[in-house]
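BUG: 3D viewer hangs when loading the predicted structure for this chain

Environment: internal workstation, default settings.
Expected: structure renders.
Actual: progress bar stalls at 90%.

Input used:
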Amino acid sequence: MDSKTNFKVARVVILFWMMGWFIKILFFGPYLLETAMVYPLRVSFFPSFFSDHRISAVFYFLPVCVLAVFFVERKPVFISSAALMLVCAAVMNLHVNTHNDATFVTTFWAALWLCWFVFRMDRLDESVALHGRFLVQCLLGMIFMAGTFGKLMDEFSNGEIIFNIFISQGEGSPLRWILGGLSPQLQGLVVAWISKVIIFSEGALILSPLLPFRWVVRLGICALPVITLFSTWRILSVLSPLIGLLVACSLWDKFDQKGQVP
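Structure tokens produced before the viewer hung:
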């Protein structure tokens, strides 16, 4: 390990985090700057701070300041950037305008991991890499356990949800284009199997903390593109921060043979 590698690790995490955060800017931009202001949501459960449309707009665009890490190689800059990313993700998770979007769930956990790492990025011992990788494996297992359990319902396993969202209504879905020439009956059969593959792929990632890191990377490389291909590119807003964690931790080339914390 060396200090330059650690800076690269942090930058890769931030790059993929920013991709996930802003990949749906064509939706969030008009929604937060126009729609939410003209038609503000009013839910008594949310306090005034988390109901103010200006707050959601400010905290959505505030991470632009994080771009400084690509021009400055100083630990305090990375610490302040990671803290800003974590606060923005936390606010968006709790705001009435954005609390129901999983984008801000995975960006929150990725930013939390980054906060853990940037305080240790000047350490050059292998324990930082080993523990960092193991934490990523635990995050993947936790996130996909929640995602898998949420899909264990008849409406998803039989393909009904996938069909309605990504074929009937999904104008930008690659799945709609792939299956467009098939009969409705055959589409339903194919979608039912795709739903089962997605459940299996996400379920396999639950085992991430129990597997060697190199296996988790290979599993992620196989599973995450499958999830994206058979849904919509917008799912990258959720998956991109997780992909970034895997790619970043792969930059550490010194770890024990099993890639696990001793």
